[in-house]
Structure of Integral membrane protein:
Amino acid sequence: MSTIIAGSRAAALARVFRVVAIAEACSWIGLLVGMAFKYLVVFEDVGVRVFGPIHGALFVAYVVVALVTARVFRWSATTTLLALAASIPPAATIWFERRAVRRGELGSAAA
């Protein structure tokens, strides 16, 4: 019974990781669009004021969820560092999430 519960919790964590990775990437793109409008189009910073805090919160959430996921799924140090590094370039968290699924690093339930 406890294996089933542990398995369902791991599957739930894999889903949370996926959602946060996608949300962080979308907020990054939103922030870049906001910056483009601020500096190139309308010279208003409303996009940055909206997407800046959203992206900041999702960035922190991604880092925390990535560290928890790394511990639960027993990722290597290299995989964990790659997950954390993926939070820096725009939309790289989606690439890392797909890589992790492809390699089975999020368990079989994530596939």
